[in-house]
Design brief:
alpha+beta, Pdz3 Domain, 14 helices, about 55% helix, about 20% strand
Length: about 400
């Protein structure tokens, strides 16, 4: 059940991402063709105001279809109408005129050729009709590639932007429910750790480390800065002052720890949002740094794929699960903002380039850059999957 909940959580984050694209597109005057929950054949489908809404058989994430992501190219004609031309020779003339018009970027002539083809479409196969619809959408005033740069950037950024906002909301909820500011009271002592062996208990109030008074905000810093040297803890327990230890901190993920967790003080809404923004900034900075270290073996080992995300999420319960969901949502946003096609960051970069040039980039350029981007994304995916499988085998 925990694995199922983790999978559904990941699917929900992807769905939120697509909802950001969808509602922003409508808000700036574009006309999405469909909003889909899941993938594969539709279980339930309805159409309202020209938009198809569907729940599909594979309930993982979803997708939004925005017409005219690229300017139609002459090569599209063969893709959509090639088989129909072989079966119906009367289509050859209009299709050739359409190809010439698209190659010359003559939208008026291309629209006229499409109208000729549409007049010949009764009884045509589904692929032919789909081609008419795709090319008509691509030449319409509502096509994505025709929109002003700020509209295009807004629609594409809305996906990762929504994931960022959701992450901050989830972090704030955890801060409000569980607490954010550290206190000097011990909330939990981890088993088989130095703190347990020295006799520390939940509920103890820590007032000194190594005979030096300590403030709640300095507890972690003081232990981490010990360099592994033995430490004593002075605590108040049931009104009595007790000195525990000494014990040597253990190194965990590059930092020294004794193995206990201080209790957090509950935060108000304003403080929770502020702490959430700070946390999102730290995570974003460290994520960017980790991507820069991917050329090194140690950096590649830190990458996780979907299996690893689900595995870690399934270990979490309650508010811990909410926090993990926030971290995953933020990671999805940052990954999608990489300036690689077909990721959102790549579309944003090309929208800005086209805005500065004053004309669309050729389809062949998109295809070449997308091939490089897909190769790099697949590389990240396989590195993450390899790490996930290695962790599973190790466990």
């Amino acid at each position: 059940m925990s694995v199922l909940i983790a999978i559904l959580g990941l699917a929900f984050l992807i769905l939120v991402h697509e909802a950001g694209h969808f509602f922003t597109a409508i808000g700036v005057g574009m006309r999405p063709r469909s909003f889909n929950i899941g993938f594969g054949p539709p279980l339930v489908k309805t159409t309202r105001k020209g938009i198809d809404y569907a729940i599909r058989i594979v309930p993982l994430g979803g997708y939004v279809k925005i017409p005219g992501m690229h300017r139609p190219a002459a090569s599209d004609v063969d893709v959509f109408f090639g088989r129909a031309m072989r079966q119906a020779p009367e289509l050859v003339g209009p299709t050739q005129r359409l190809k010439r018009a698209l190659a010359a970027a003559d939208d008026e002539a291309a629209s006229a050729a499409l109208q000729e083809l549409e007049a010949l479409s009764p009884g045509a196969p589904h692929e032919f009709k789909r081609g008419l619809r795709e090319l008509s959408d691509g030449l319409s005033p509502y096509a994505y590639w025709r929109q002003r740069t700020w509209r295009r950037v807004a629609v594409i950024f809305a996906g990762p932007g929504t994931n960022m906002v959701l992450a901050i909301v989830l972090f704030a909820a955890v801060y409000m429910a569980v607490g954010g500011k550290p206190t000097s009271t011990v909330a939990e002592v981890l088993p088989k750790q130095p703190a347990q062996r020295m006799g520390l208990r939940a509920g103890d109030q820590l007032i000194a480390i190594g005979n030096q008074p300590v403030e709640p905000s300095d507890i972690v810093k003081r232990i981490t800065g010990s360099g592994g040297r033995p430490l004593t803890l002075t605590v108040v327990r049931d009104g009595r002052v007790i000195i525990l230890g000494p014990a040597r901190p253990h190194k965990v993920n590059g930092a020294y720890r004794l193995g206990f967790r201080p209790k957090g003080a509950h935060l108000g809404l304003g403080e929770s949002i502020w702490y959430s923004l700070k946390l999102a900034g730290v995570v974003s900075r460290e994520t960017v740094k980790s991507l820069g270290r991917i050329v090194h073996k140690s950096g590649r080992k830190q990458i996780s794929g979907p299996v690893g995300i689900v595995q870690e999420s399934s270990k979490s319960t309650g508010w811990d699960y909410v926090a993990v969901l926030g971290f995953v949502s933020l990671s999805l946003a940052l990954l999608n903002l990489l300036p690689l096609l077909p990721l959102d960051g790549g579309h944003i970069a090309f929208s800005i380039i086209e805005g500065l040039r004053g004309r669309a980039v050729g389809r062949e350029v998109y295809e070449r850059v997308s091939a490089i981007g897909i190769a790099l994304v697949l590389l990240l995916f396989f590195v993450g999957l390899s790490n996930d499988l290695g962790r599973l085998n190790g466990s």
